[in-house]
Design goal:
Distance between the termini: 44 Å
Order of helices and strands: HHHHHHEHEEEH
Radius of gyration: 22 Å
Largest sheet: 4 strands, mixed
CATH superfamily of the largest domain: N-terminal domain of the delta subunit of the F1F0-ATP synthase
Number of strands: 4
Helix content: 55-70%
Mean pLDDT: 89
Shape: elongated
CATH architecture of the largest domain: Orthogonal Bundle
Structural class: alpha+beta
């Protein structure tokens, strides 16, 4: 939990600086690439976390990452190394991505459905969600056959459950209540 709080603080500060610099999108792309490298490359991850590797060497490793000419991002990487917080890079990247989307007025929406949505269904759903939220929604659709039908929509902390599984569960609970009377 502390890591998430720290990641949010670092990401918020970085967003403020990159916004003034005009490099929000480039920074977002670079952080996502660094996160992927951190998660997939054992050598990269161990180099940044090893106490045997000096801070200067760690800064040099991160300096090799093309940061879209962003001086602020390289200074940010230096700060993470100096504060021994390089292991927070994936969490900072996720938080920065969310904050940058909110800054740009984009809401990420995860949609799980029993069957793949057609282009027309996705378009209508996006238009409805854009209208409801007053922001531009970015849909991330996936198929989950366990849902049996309907869809589950997740926007941040909000969940709209219109699945057959959920409806059957609600109906079962109502029937149990009626049997108790």
């Amino acid at each position: 939990m502390i890591e998430k709080t720290l990641a949010k603080r670092y990401a918020t500060a970085l967003l403020a600086v990159t916004n003034r610099e005009g490099t929000v999108e480039e920074t977002e792309a670079t952080l996502i690439a660094v996160k992927q490298a951190y998660q997939t490359s054992d050598r990269f991850r161990s180099a940044l976390s090893s106490p045997r590797i000096s801070r200067a060497q760690k800064r040099a490793i991160l300096r090799r990452i093309p940061a879209g000419s962003s001086k602020a991002l390289h200074e940010f990487f230096d700060l993470l190394v100096d504060k021994n917080r390089a292991k927070l890079l994936p969490d900072i990247a996720d938080m920065y991505d969310r904050l940058a989307d909110a800054f740009k007025g984009i809401v990420r929406v995860q949609v799980r459905s029993a069957y793949a949505l057609t282009g027309e269904q996705s378009g209508r759903l996006k238009a409805d969600l854009d209208r409801i939220t007053g922001k531009s929604c970015s849909l991330e659709a996936s198929v989950d056959r366990a849902l049996k039908g309907g869809m589950l929509i997740r926007m941040g902390d909000s969940v709209l459950d219109g699945t057959v599984t959920h409806r059957l569960k609600s109906l079962r609970e109502k029937l149990h209540e009626l049997q108790k009377r």
